[in-house]
């Protein structure tokens, strides 16, 4: 039996140390590998439980902390762990270390070297068996040699009190497996049990390394708790009745534990007087002092009676004495004078004392010898019985302790599993759940009692359950660790994308006992990846559109300059030709083609959002209603046009010509989608857009909008077509039947007014365009579009002086010629510098400046600023292929600025000049617009 316990001791010792090394390695790896705790859970249950059992049974054990599984140990106060880098800088300091040393983690982590914790007056001279001094080089050697200890070390508490510990150091593995730091696990050194009370108020009972309780020590227990008086008393009472002899059991301090048949002379006299009671104690204690187990002493006590005493040994330890006596031998002559003198000396009543004396029993020598022999065997019986009872009680106590410890270990492990921030479950080889953590219960919406004992088929949909069972079988066929990506149904029918890691665990006989699994939710990551792809596509599309817009704007500028020359001279030639002239018709065709080209350039500018607009606050219902007659003519008789205006529509601020452009383009587009006729519905409504709806498009913004929708029941479009719908030059028409700029100009116009478009279409189910224009909260009343006053040709001429600044020679010559033909005096300048010089040299007033916006050295606005400083009241007209930001804000002309977009006709130019010159001075005098 002893041999068996000895073997168990070695087995437990090796398992314990192995478990602790594994746990230390897990803590080290978890510092950089957040998922390593999952792998630690997959280790054979025996090693892990041994590690925890070692901690649970030894309050001197260390604490651990780390990520995932070890994050729970980080908060535990039952083990002491800290770690650092290769130079000893503290990187981790768990709650147990805080409790033991009195520092908070934030006081030390990334602030102090671990040597800061060492008592400078009690540093060990050697480290382990290598003779390494406790300096930062210790940690470099540790990383090189992988030394683990344990080492005797003295740490310094925050209060300055030294704490002797056994320090176990292990290398901490980096991401690529190299040693980049250390992990230290501290246990209080032997001989410092008093400090344990400072470590944790919930420390477990002392248990040695074998798992067994300390040896039984009866002399440290109360004798009444060993011999069980309730059982002994009846036996002793029977003995007294049968023999007439006294019997008593006393502890080592001569206190009565159980007794029977005590004589009156002792009970009522000798033991009531302190002096005579002391004689009783002295007599017995003197006699038993040198007796061994099984021996006895017969003696004549100082109170003049015969007594017998024998020691009571239990488990080899002297715990009390068994006493009999208070008698005279039958052949003994008792001298009453001695007792009378005794009574007088100690104050006893002489008559009562002598009566008690006469009641003292007399026994023969043989009878006393027989009774002593019996009492010797009775003492041995009590000794053995008590020891067996003591052993049994200790065994029961150990059983209860073991049961409680296992319960605590189970609860501790369950708390660790519950602390893992991922769903965890484990099964047997038949696929039945054995347990899980709280997060798994919450995800599938079942209590633990509803999960344990059931299979995946009882919990998940059939398809998912079949997949899980198949993967479990593959794992059992090839034990180890398997990881795979899948999805499964959680509470309320939601689908989650997960990476699930499964690993087998072993039974004590090394057979596969089941599996343990941890899943990682990657739903947000998957959605993030999809959103990232979508946003990247949106960004690429936006960058492409922006690049095309810049190109379109640049082309339109140069093209408008050329068209200006063509249209100007052709228009002038037509005015000077007889309509009957054969060349007249040819020039008309050329002029028509040039004007069509100017429309194309305006479309390019609209797409590039560089067209000049004059927005006003208006009622969208009124504008659209005014266009319905024209729109019905556009769609034809075989298309039914329905107009559904919204009630009390919010006002919007927009250039009415842009609304005309949007409605015309989308109506024609719908007509072409319904070649055999159909239905077109135009509607308006106030809407409030939230953030959720904005996820449908990159340019969408939350807010209040007026929605203009056009819905047809035509042929519809697929997703690829819808995605490219607003790209310039993209068209679904046959070659030669459209430039593909129509919808791109719509996109530009809407975006220029801070709105956005949403298109929904399916092949064969028609198309809906929803245009969202911002709700205008301008306090101005809704305005009607400004009506231009048409001038008759007779009013075009004049005699004023005009300074014309244009860096394009052809346009400069054309403008000078046209103005002079109508009576104006023209000062022509091919650059801003020339214009300033000519103006300075001109002695008479200059009434009007006509300037190109974009010129070298100085733009048109800067030129007017300088001229207006010396010539107050000078009026200005700007002209350009597209306006620069110096006279507009986001394409909107500044208040008080007159602008002529190129190309312009002779008639429009002369009419604009006359309008500006004839304007009332207070309103026509232009103040310098603020620089954009």
A few lines on this structure:
This protein has 932 residues and is α+β, with helices and mostly antiparallel strands. The chain has 31 helices and 30 strands. 44% of the residues lie in helices and 21% in strands.
Topology:
Elements: H1 2-30, H2 36-42, H3 45-57, H4 69-75, E1 80-85, E2 90-93, H5 95-101, H6 105-108, H7 137-145, E3 151-156, E4 162-173, E5 179-188, H8 196-199, H9 224-227, H10 229-243, E6 247-251, E7 256-260, H11 264-270, H12 274-288, E8 297-300, E9 306-314, E10 317-329, H13 336-346, H14 350-358, E11 362-363, H15 365-419, E12 424-428, E13 433-436, H16 438-444, H17 448-451, H18 456-459, H19 462-477, E14 481-489, E15 495-506, E16 512-521, H20 523-575, H21 582-607, E17 616-618, H22 620-635, E18 639-644, E19 652-654, H23 656-673, E20 678-689, H24 691-694, E21 703-712, H25 719-723, H26 742-752, E22 756-761, E23 767-774, E24 801-805, H27 809-821, E25 825-829, H28 832-841, E26 848-852, H29 860-870, E27 875-880, E28 888-889, E29 892-893, E30 899-901, H30 906-918, H31 921-924
Parallel strand pairs: 10-11, 18-20, 24-25, 24-26, 26-27, 27-30
Antiparallel strand pairs: 1-2, 1-5, 3-4, 4-5, 6-7, 6-10, 8-9, 9-10, 12-13, 12-16, 14-15, 15-16, 17-19, 20-21, 21-23, 22-23, 28-29
Helix pairs in contact: 1-3, 3-15, 4-15, 13-14, 20-21, 20-27, 21-26, 22-23, 23-26, 28-29
